[in-house]
Amino acid sequence: MNICLFMIETYWHGVRGGMQTYQKLLSEALIRRGHRLTVISTRHPEGKEHEMLNGLKLHYLRDTTFGSKRKGWRTACLRKYIELDRINNFDIIYSISVIIPKRLFEVAVEQRTSIILSSHGTGTMMLSSEIKQTISQRKGFKNLTKTVLLFIYYYFIRELSVRKYDAIITVSDEVAKSTLKWYFVDKNKVYTVYNGVETDIFRPDQKQRKHTREALAILNEEKVLLFFSLVTKQKGLHLLIKALPTILKNNKCVKLLIVGEGEYLDEARLLVKQSGLGNYAFFTGHIPRKEASHYINASDIFIMPTLRQEGLPFSLLEAMACQKPIIASRIGGIPSVIDDGVNGLLIPPGNIEELVDKLLLLIENGDFANKLANNARKKIIQKFSLEEMIERTIKVFEITKK
Fold it and tell me: Which residues of 67-87 are buried (b: 16+ CB within 10 A; e: fewer)?
């Protein structure tokens, strides 16, 4: 098949979030299987307009703003698509999130080209997160008003267009439910294809564990709690930092390893300093994806205390693939992969007491932690491998192709 993929920010812009990782893995796998793939995206920060990477064609639109669906995106991406389609005669248009202009639907109908949406979350899920977080923290009500008004605008102007897509691929059961409930989509158009992990790369590895712990000066007897994510307030890192003093009262041989970067990083560093945790919490900043498994293997417990309605986070799946016991918020698509008490532990979002209880349970009960960890990897291999994701995605393409 010949596929044209639309995305606002790509992995090759230098953005390393979950959607960008998804796009990278999917793009490379499609090309390995002999499909042709062209990506259309916003302006590149370095001024690049196009490049070819191992068979993948990337076009960065000069007359747009990096990462923005406004300021020229609709006109520029439509013009570029029509130009490239004359040469490629695309079979599939694949849009990662709701970003393509209305006119492109008309063009696709005229040319009998299928348009498929990849949905990693919905506006209603995001709004629900904002409302719950504002109420729980009892602050930010002015910003919430602005968020609600923006949601109403985008819901009616842009998001209801999901009904025009020939198929919608959702990354979790929760995203599928939200799509059906709020966007009045024909249920036969919605396919749930879970994010998938490279289980040959993300796997238990004692050499990686030993080498990384030595590099970080972590002692054998120390338990390492791992937070590995984009560092924003909604990811809940502040909750984990606030939980750490209570953990240390019960066990001094605990370290918190914080991997990632983001807008909340400086504030998180300040919170660690103010809490007197400088000897127990360590920040690595951004690390290359090829080193991610090293840090996961160096840890003992993976924690995702997010307050956000996640689609299905790659870091969670990667930690499970590396056979780590998990503690994660019962929110968004996370319950799609975590069976509470079987392959991980779920906590109410924002509940520090529950987070502390579950952490102490795993720290003090090694057999139970190992049982969860073993079951976690089994679950990933059974349902969340990269191969499974690719095969199911291609199947949707084939079913939908006109």
Answer: eebeebbbebbbebbeebbee
Sketch out the chain's domains with CATH numbers.
2-126+158-196+386-400 (3.40.50.2000), 206-383 (3.40.50.2000)
Q: What is the pLDDT along the chain (402 residues), one digit of tens a residue?
A: 999 999 999 999 988 888 899 999 999 999 999 999 999 999 999 999 999 999 999 999 999 999 998 889 999 999 999 999 999 999 999 999 989 999 999 999 999 999 999 998 876 676 676 666 666 666 666 676 766 776 676 666 666 678 899 999 999 999 999 899 888 889 999 999 999 999 999 999 999 999 999 999 999 999 999 999 989 888 999 999 999 999 999 999 999 999 999 899 999 999 999 999 999 999 999 998 899 999 999 999 999 999 988 888 999 999 999 999 999 999 989 999 999 999 999 999 999 999 999 999 999 999 999 999 999 999 999 999 999 999 999 999 999 988
CA angle 179, 262, 245 (to 5 degrees): 100
Task: Check: CB of residue 77 under 8 Å from CB of residue 53.
Answer: no
Rounded distance between C-alpha atoms, residue 108 and residue 115, angstroms: 7
Token representation of residue 245: 């003093």
